[in-house]
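User: Could you write out the 3D structure of this protein bound to nicotinamide-adenine-dinucleotide? I've included everything you need below.
Assistant: Certainly. Input first, then the structure.
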Amino acid sequence: MRVLVTGGAGFIGANFVHRTLATRPDARITVLDKLTYAANPGSLATVRDRIRLVEGDVGDAAVVDPLVADADLVVHFAAESHNDNSLADPGIFVHTNVVGTFTLLEAIRRNDVRYHHISTDEVYGDLKLDDGSRFTESTPYNPSSPYSSTKASSDLLVRAWVRSFGIRATISNCSNNYGPYQHVEKFIPRQITNVLSGIRPKLYGTGDNVRDWIHVDDHNDAVWAIIDGGTIGETYLIGADGERDNRTVIETILELLGQPADAFDFVTDRPGHDLRYAIDSTRLRTELGWRPTFTDFRSGLAATVDWYRDNRSWWEPLKRDVEARYAQTEQVLD
Ligand code: NAD
Ligand code: DAU
């Protein structure tokens, strides 16, 4: 099977490439990636001779068309993915997430190729902290940030291309991923690498916000379950019952790294900060039989801490710039 993976040099895409090569020996993988600041070709170094890596923009039809024509399956991970960046500079999010997806969909339509669209639970907005409700496939779209609104737009384009043009597509909306190869701008790797660099972890606002954590391998196994057995035109929510408030996550990281539980700073909150995400993945489990493997968040987090401790050369060159960028807007609260 010829698989085109967009965004395969980013966090989830690179893990998808590794997982696919390990579990599907017949897969021939081409990665299309613009190699933005978020990409790290080092994430693919160990499999570099087993894949084709094309540097290019998913919004560039001249690049995208021949790659799609040469594929049996396209899995679309490429995106601008960080909420904080979308608040500072939303334009690139519209280009990559909306125009990029549109460009890909047009190539899919012309070439009649199977398409899987990777999206986020953030398209549904947020939930109250304490009412126990969870997102389902029928929750109305209500995105909060420039990032999540461009992802919601891209999902709606996919739905329209299925209905209007009959493309063979599925969509998945997943909760917060953690694991190896995640950029140090994101919450968990930022705090782990802060401690490893002698910097105090930084908690936005009160730290009460809740995210529903899933290991990246569980996400990617679910994506393959949907590609293999999902119904064309349908959406599947992916989540592993991993709700934790941000403060608890920081305290666990500190404990795993042998630091006092209160050795972190409260900093200014993210504008429009979503309170809580939580996924009801009943459909994925009952229809497709998917189950997460990483059911103990603490041990998944411990393995992730070990990965960052053992792979300093992967993240150290990025760390100074990321912290300098945060320092421009972030203030430590008393
Ligand atoms: P990431 O930022 O780590 O990687 C994104 C990759 O896309 C990078 O390699 C980047 O170079 C590439 N890219 C960006 N713009 C491009 C363009 N115009 N053309 C081609 N390539 C481009 O992101 P991630 O965390 O791996 O997320 C991957 C996908 O999963 C995204 O679609 C995101 O919305 C979705 N998602 C992420 C999470 C999460 O917790 N990280 C959860 C649910 C869904
Ligand atoms: O829910 C899925 C989404 O998860 C994906 O669609 C996004 O691509 C991905 O980035 C992630 O979005 P979040 O905004 O939830 O992730 P982030 O890692 O930026 O932040 C997680 C939580 O931690 C959030 O409540 C903000 C908080 N935070 C973040 C950073 C970077 C802090 O408290 N301190 C920090 O330094």
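DSSP finds eleven helices and 13 strands in the chain.
User: Perfect, thank you.
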